[in-house]
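call fold target=Signal peptide peptidase SppA
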Amino acid sequence: MNFCKVIGSGIKKGWKVINVVREIVVNLTFLLIILLIWGGWNLVKEQKTVNKPNKNGILVFDVQGSITDHVSHDKNFYALQQKLYGNSVNKKRENSLFEITEKLEQAKNDPTIKGIVLKLDNFTGADLPALEYIGKYLTAFKQNNKLIYAISNQYNQSQYYLASFANKIYLPPQGVVHLYGLSTNNFYFKTLLDNLKVNTHVFRVGTYKSAVEPLIRNDMSTEARENTYRWMNGMWDNYANDVATNRQQLPNLFIPKADIFLSQVKSVNGDLTEYALQYDLVDKIAPYYQFEADMQQAFNNEDDSISIYDYQLVSDNKETQTTKPEIALVFVNGTIAEGENSNNNAGSDSITEQLAAIRKNDNVKAVIIRVNSPGGSVTASEAIRNEIQAIRNQNIPVVISMGGMAASGGYWISTASDYIIASKNTITGSIGIFGIIPTFEKSLAHIGVYTDGVSTSPLADSALTKDLSNEFNQLMQMNIENGYQTFIKLVAEARQLSIENVDRIAQGQVWLGQEAKNRGLVDQIGDFDDAVAKAAELANITDYQITTIESDSSWLDSLLFNISASLPKSSAEMIYQHLPVSKSIQAHINLLNTFNDPQYRYVYCLNCADVGL
């Protein structure tokens, strides 16, 4: 009896401890949510009610994190997150390409802005077409007789691309300029899957369709290697030409081959800072305090500066804006998948809803689809393409503006447009298709689990727990081949090319923008501004407003989405996030999670999503 009492007392005490811990966790979570709601509300209220005048002086381009076409989270919550967690959030912040360039355009003509300082330490990068586009606005700023200076403790290739537009580049002592080239690496899982006894069924069309290679090989195929090497070299040549031209140097001398580079570094005893100065990568070696003194002198002892985040855009009168005809802007950003838009995913449900809303808006006279996607689900891509076609059926012109990539499914949806504009460095093409179904019958058998049953047809007897029947394999392959024929027919009809010609440039091959134009896959090499001009021309309008179309969501949905993005990660997650190998594996897992096509058919370019500066 006493023993039972002791046990019962112990259980009661243990339960009390658990209950106390539970209540603490619940209360802390509740307080955190209240804090986020309160902070978010105050940030939004502050932005809506306070119109601070811009300071006179220097505009500081102090971008934190990456620059992307379309920001997935509310910028107010980034500001709140930074207040709560400090500067550790900087490197994962997203910044809108078009908001930045709009501010640069305004600053060019703003008499209160005397110059720009590119403070690039916390800028983590952008795709090359985005960098080109920013560079265009920096050039225009300089051409308006205003000066640009750049400084960073070290320059990665994205940072240096922007710095090359400056009148003068500074580098602190012990600083480095990293100009080494481009690379892409993937993990290959064939042996792992074999060891796990996973039976990977792959169905594909296209010699160069490399998206499935990580699951069926331990290395890159010769065809995929040759194709990737070709366009990657082209992109690097474009990068080198741009920065060398900005620095008034010859590209082959400014960024030499590895053996010459090593010889040159040896000549300065391995001092990479001195190398950067001697070979004109930078103009001056100076610590930050000297840089600040130089800026005072350059701008006539002007002390005031304003961050690009605090620099306010001055918009036109709202009443005038609402009466102007609209050019609607829709973003297709990330892997194309069924469902709603989410982080790094372009959800077909969200995008088709946006496109359908455009058709019902009589004030919309033209549409620009900004595509920055490696593709994804065939079903999702076709749903988006159909809605684009429906807009054109109402005599509303549609222009595709390609960003860093518009490959495979990204190109599939582009075939429904009136006109396609790409950057010279846009990664596009990858016209091919594949299907993938893993089954686990051998894995289960290894641990003593088997599947058996009865079906009325071998086509009905398909499950992840047993091998696919021969009949189902045949059906899948025919479906994939039909999907490929559909793809090349869409391209042939849209681009007025023969089926044979499209097949030659298809097969999953990837092309840079200029190569794609030479082969008839795009109409013009240009940027977003060219797309706007073309849309206005096709709609025959001269006075218009650009309206970004977003999906309707309740305030609660938006709040929960942004709160989840703002919550701090666990220590383990934060460490995991900074391990390159773990990040690459996680990227593959995230990709597989988006593969939700009901027919298991995908138009996706793997390498397109894995190359950056």
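return ok
Residues 57-179+281-307 form a domain with the 2-enoyl-CoA Hydratase; Chain A, domain 1 fold (CATH 3.90.226.10). The chain has two domains: 57-179+281-307, 318-610.
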